[in-house]
Write a structure and sequence with these properties.
Bound molecules: adenosine monophosphate
Strand content: 5-15%
CATH architecture: 3-Layer(aba) Sandwich
Number of strands: 8
Largest sheet: 5 strands, parallel
CATH class: Alpha Beta
Distance between the termini: 8 Å
Mean pLDDT: 93
Structural class: alpha/beta
Order of helices and strands: EHEHHHEHEHEEEHHEH
Number of helices: 9
Oligomer: single chain
CATH topology: Rossmann fold
Length: 220
């Protein structure tokens, strides 16, 4: 199964990606996480991406596309994958579609998580992420058992630099302008499936499972 996750920042894509990973046994390819890893290692790619990320802007398409196509050619992605945060522009989607078509492994679905902007802003303002395993907590809705510490791996919880309200609103604007057109793009191709992303993570997980219950196995 080859899945793309769409939806504005704060829609819960990261949380649902992790649940799908457990449920389907497929790797998550999360471009934001890959970039943050490069930034923390101060690699050349990290230095290129950093200024865009800090301002809540998109990293240029050619850089992202190169990185993702390379990742998709790794052995663990050959039987399927969950793409979180990519594609985010029409040229990115076209590059992905062309590459997968050449390899005869087209996408299975694009899952779009719908959420109101104000709910998204509130979620992100309270978001804490484990610096080790990337699990996501929310100070209001899903606090960790011990403040500042991941329940599962004990890692330190951190706030993302781009989760302040001004940057979040900019990210939402960019989403509307650059990424929302992808809904039509995937709809035209019969791949779009919309999911109500408000409510608890468990509720959204159940809706997602229902939405993809007819999809075929990865190898087909
Ligand atoms: P995310 O964790 O998905 O919210 O991504 C964090 C940041 O990484 C974004 O605000 C962008 O600066 C950058 N980024 C992640 N994915 C992409 C992408 N597909 N295209 C361009 N920039 C991206």
């Amino acid at each position: 199964m080859r899945i793309v996750l769409l939806g504005p920042p704060g829609a819960g894509k990261g949380t649902q990606a992790r649940r799908l990973e457990e449920h389907l046994g497929l790797p998550i390819i999360a471009t934001g996480d890959i970039f943050r890893e490069h930034v923390s290692q101060d690699s050349e790619l990290g230095r290129e991406a950093r200024s865009y990320m800090d301002n809540g802007e998109l990293v240029p398409d050619d850089i992202v596309v190169r990185m993702v196509l390379d990742r998709l050619s790794q052995p663990d992605a050959l039987n399927g994958f969950i793409l979180d945060g990519f594609p985010r522009t029409v040229p990115q989607a076209q590059a992905l579609e062309n590459s997968l078509a050449e390899e005869g492994r087209p996408l299975s679905a694009a899952l779009k998580f719908n959420i109101d902007d104000e709910v998204a802003v509130k979620r992100l303002a309270n978001r804490w992420t484990c610096s080790n395993c990337r699990r996501i907590y929310n100070a209001e809705f899903k606090p960790p058992r011990t403040p500042g510490e991941c329940d599962v791996c004990g890692g330190v919880l951190i706030r993302r630099d781009d989760d302040d309200e001004v940057t979040v609103r900019r990210r939402l604007d960019i989403y509307r302008k650059e990424t929302e057109p992808l809904e039509f793009y995937f709809w035209e191709r019969g791949l779009l499936r919309e999911i109500d992303a408000e409510g608890s993570a468990d509720d959204v997980e159940a809706r997602t499972a229902e939405e993809i219950s007819d999809l075929k196995e990865p190898s087909s």
